[in-house]
Amino acid sequence: MRGHGFLLANYVPGDSVLHRSPLGLKFLLVFACGLASFIIVDWRISAAMLVVLCGLFLLTGAGVKRLWRAVRPLAVVLLVIGVFQWLQLGAPTAARIVLNILVCIVAASLLTATTPVQRLLDGVVKAAGPFRRLGADPERFALTIGIMLRSIPYIAGTFSDVRDSARARGLERNPRALVLPVFITSVAFARQTGEALAARGLGEAED
Asked: Are 1 and 158 in contact (CB under 8 A)?
């Protein structure tokens, strides 16, 4: 199974300012960009934000190709959204919506490209700590996120491999040739993950 990225850039070792920035500050950047996407009403401001974030991303040393790999999975979806909103609400609104989505993706990619996964999960545990008194389990929450970060690229890679195999056999338009192998592989992956967690005494409900 070859590796596949999914939506967000993978961690890139480096010594840039963003690599050295506190995790909380980077979380705040992502939150601020998400909040801004609901507030900004001018596509030109969204475009300016996107340019700044892309510049910051390139300063990390991640490169244009890695940024494109983070955006590429949503390219078709963004195109459909843009055309639909253009027909319904006009070009400025369509541009603002698409640009705001890209702003959120690039901001999140800045976080993942400059923060090792383990440090990111440790930050999630620390941030969720105050909810422990309400019965929450921060460690289990971080474990869930870690499994998600591992599972989504694997399943995306499975689909890409199955699609290539079906195309080689002339079955790319056969839904069964695409869906069934991905479903079987995903279920097998889920069972293997569950067994690995159970063997380590993880993921079990506490009495």
From this structure: yes
* 4 phi and psi angles, rounded to 5 deg: -140, 135
CB atoms closer than 10 angstroms to residue 6: 18
Q: What distance in Å separates the CA atoms of residue 99 and residue 92, rounded to the nearest whole number? A: 10
* Verdict on whether the full-model pTM lies above 0.70: no
Q: 200-203: which pairs have CB atoms within 8 A and are 24 or more residues apart?
A: 202/143, 203/140, 203/143
Longest dimension (CA), the chain: 57
Pure H helices in 72-174: 75-89, 91-114, 117-128, 138-168
Residues 73-115 have pLDDT tens digits of 778 788 888 999 999 889 999 999 999 989 988 888 888 888 8
CA-CA distance, 106 to 50, in Å (whole number)? 8
Q: pLDDT tens, 135-194?
A: 666 666 666 666 666 665 666 667 667 777 877 877 767 777 777 777 777 777 667 766
* CB neighbour list of residue 134: distance below 8 Å, 6 or more residues apart: none
CA–CA gap between residue 105 and residue 155 (Å, rounded): 20
